[in-house]
Amino acid sequence: MALSGSEHGEEILANEYFEKGDEEDKERLEEIKNKALHSQKNSPRMRKAIEILRENQPDEAFWQGLADRCINCGGCVYVCPTCTCFNVYDLPSQGGHIRCRSWDACVHAGFTRETSGHNPRSTQGSRLARRHEHKLKFDIVNFKESGCVGCGRCSDTCPVGLGAIEIIQELNAL
Ligand code: SF4
Ligand code: SF4
Predict the structure, then answer these.
(1) Is 58 in the pocket of ligand 1 (CB under 6 A)?
(2) What's the CA gap between 45 and 165, in Å, rounded?
(3) Which of 162, 165, 166 for mutating ligand 2's site (highest number of atoms within 8 Å of CB)?
(4) Cα-only R_g, the chain
(5) DSSP-derived 3-state class of residue 109
(6) C-alpha span between 155 and 152 (Å, rounded)
């Protein structure tokens, strides 16, 4: 079932590849959403990891120890359904320029590097910490929901085993 949130979305849904949903589809959608929410909130390992981060554990050495494995490919971010980091730049084009917006990733050093060269998140450990604290701590503080839906895409993608599932395991092992 697909729902649109704009006029453009409505135009796309008018395409022959989509069928109109009915009340039964809407009920099924709510069932699936509730089940996903329920299972995530009831994951003891997720709850414990959230608790540990809320208590301001662990220290920098924990994150850097894991981040030493990170090859900075950005894969975990680009496949995540809740990641929204982007960059804006001007591309020269036929005597003028085009303003472009592209995906970016908080795990890349350049994402937070300032014009002066100073980088408030200068180590890979601090960037890895920020990514997971954002989802499992600050999104809960700000929006009362975890920013991680537990889909496991980052764990499937990361070539060195540093997705959210592995990070949650590491936090549980503290
Ligand atoms: S498991 Fe969480 S962090 Fe990883 S891709 Fe899914 S939502 Fe994103
Ligand atoms: S996918 Fe793994 S190796 Fe690549 S940036 Fe993310 S944590 Fe690092």
Answers:
(1) no
(2) 9
(3) 162
(4) 20
(5) helix
(6) 5
Distance CA 24, CA 136 (A): 34
DSSP H helical ranges for the chain: 7-13, 23-41, 44-54, 60-67, 75-78, 124-133, 139-143, 153-157, 164-172
Q: What is the pTM assigned to this prediction?
A: 0.79
C-alpha–C-alpha distance, residues 100 and 151, integer Å: 30
Q: Is the pLDDT of residue 40 over 70?
A: no
Is the distance from the beta carbon of residue 79 to the nearest atom of ligand 2 less than 6 Å?
A: no
Span 91-140, pLDDT tens digits: 999 889 999 999 999 999 999 999 999 999 999 999 999 999 999 999 99
Question: Residue 28 C-alpha to ligand 2 middle, in angstroms?
Answer: 35
From the list 24, 25, 1, the residue with the least C-alpha distance to 13 is 1
Main-chain phi, psi angles of 86, to 5 degrees: -145, 165
Contact by Cβ (8 Å): 134, 47:
no
Summarize pLDDT for 92-103 with one digit per residue, the tens.
998 899 999 999
